[in-house]
Amino acid sequence: MKELMLGNEAVARGLYEAGVKVISSYPGTPSTEITENATKYDEMYCEWAPNEKVATEVAIGASIGGVRSFCAMKHVGLNVAADPIYTASYTGVNGGMVLAVADDPGMHSSQNEQDSRHHAIAAKLAMLEPSDSTECLEFTKLGFELSEKFDTPVILRLTTRIAHSSSLVELGQREEKEIKDFPKDPQKYVMMPAMAIKRHVIVEQRMRDLVEWAETCKINTVEYNDGAKLGIICAGDCYQYAKEALGSTANYLKLGMVNPLPIDLIKNFASKCEKTVVFEELDPIIENHCKTIGLDVVGKELFGLLGEFSQSTIREKLLGQKTDLLKSDINIVPRPPVLCAGCPHRGTFYALKSLGCNVSGDIGCYSLGAMAPLSSVDTTICMGASVSALHGMSKARGAEFSKKSVAVIGDSTFIHSGITGIIDIVYNKGISTVLVLDNSITGMTGHQNNPTNGLTIKGDPTVAVDLESLARACGFKNVRVVDPYNIAEVKTVVKQELEKEEPSMVICRRPCALLKTVKRKPALKVNADKCIGCKSCMKIGCPAISMRDKKAVIDFTQCVGCGVCEQMCKFGAITE
Amino acid sequence: MTKNIMIVGVGGQGTLLASRLLGTVMVNKGYDVKISEVHGMSQRGGSVVTYVKFGDKVDSPLVDKGEADIVMAFEQLEAARWLPYLKPNGHLIVNTQSIDPMPVINGVAEYPQGIIDSIKATGVSVTATDALSIAVESGSAKAVNVVLIGIMAKHLDITEEEWMSAIESTVPVKFIEMNKKAFLLGYNLK
Questions:
Q1: Taking a C-beta distance cutoff of 8 angstroms, is the pair B98, B77 a contact?
Q2: Is the N or C terminus of chain B more exposed, i.e. has fewer CB atoms within 10 Å?
């Protein structure tokens, strides 16, 4: 029986069938559902780690501990995990270890469009790239075999369209693996210069062995079609796009392993085609390899470096085809993402805007505070940067700047990378004010529990990090807690804390309005007799409020009765 | 021959469930099926789209401009936005509900008027329905997705029983009856 599975779900199934025992990840779109689905199998221990570095170290430890282990992350998460994984490349593994990284061409939900294949090359690790859910399952299992055969962690690379597309998958049985002996082998596992020098030699030999494997392995496949003169070299989702656009009119070299790349296999394929085209999203990794081995191929000059591709990319840029499209005279107004109706961040951002604060932002739903009409966030860089960058800005611009500037960081992001930043502020005599937007969940990635909400990945009760005590222990004397639904309270407290020439933490605490445990209040209503159409309620940018016939109206399907708009109306027109 | 269906709407309207329900039906019919979704940032009240493709063999999970046989739109402006994806001889199913996007709320843009008429003027086949009112009648405003699926079901070669069994296997138990009712209200719409 075949099952329709999301690519991420199929990776989770592959982990189960491969006999994996330990999984540690940090959520990140588009990788999150791998670990969420893995928790459905009781045979595997699963956890959310505070960040990707910790997750990767847990997986490395579990591998050294003798079992098959796994961690998953989004592309930028691999930057955080780069430190352990680059050295795990030297130590190799005991039990097999696979790390999944999900790239996001087109940046559906990311702050940059980096190509993780660079990490595989730099860390000298094998990288596999599936092109549908069946391959997600199979390549995951193969990853563990390769990991143990070549004594190396293996990276499984996904892209958004593979991770978040469903296709049919044939399920297999789980194969339990015996736990291996704990190794007492400092030459292999203690990476000091004397040992690492020797291990580097082994790493380079392993890469040569992997190239040899790549020449004949079953996942690098060649498909010749009768009469076809065009050769397409591709991997992952690009293979599907090319197949859809060109069908049997082209020959294909589909690379299931994208690092290291074979040499003879590619040369042989190119020699049988009149023209060879490399079709890959993001950076010209395969293309540059082809050029290095002396092949005349075409790639980025046709398709470019930006965004995600589709079947149309081939049709338009390679074949020069154009399609007639339906066209109307409607003025299409953009619909960017917004903070949800009832989002607790809304009140906080409105308060910061009315105080005229500079806001050092961070990664999460609350980056949407940068959008009009709240327009409150000045910078967003990476996980944790709100706190440390604010400290840098303050050191650059002095106390007066500090007194009108704050950092905003979510609860999960704070645990991920904000703690080191607040220590930097205290240790180096900073006076910054940090707002922790504590909505008791990891929101943007779709509601994952985290160390601050007292629940494990399975929803079991556990110890919750006490943010107030943590801040005090780090040296913050001023720690305040406010309700972000109360605009006046947020304004007063933030103002008081900004005036102090000391570091302060303000915790804006209110659970995400979308959480199932949060009871919705009845939708609010506008009394049309009292509404004068002043649009004050529109200043908070709530998607549930709009103007109809010069009066505000509230969409009952969206409103959760948070009451923030009620505080905006001087005429008492908004009521329960 | 592959059939391409696009389900478009505003984040939070339940487009994901609609695509999974449709996908389940097509798998049960023995087709090769691919569904493509987008999670994360764009789900937060933004314009969202899912693709459902089925046939003997499906390659790309994406539907491109001019490729959709059916576009099912949960909201008027979204129907207009994704119209170029519909084949000129395709069919548009649209919920007449309108939800203001942020530029309209901010007052920097106006919600376009006469969307349905403008779309009809292109000559494309359109079924426009107030699915929200029907959903409310069935017991929940959230059932808009299933009402629309019910309307679309008339355009696909699938029996009522096959839809019902897909609802049973896709929807949480306590919502099955409500969703069946919503489906039938859409399915039997004249």
A1: yes
A2: C
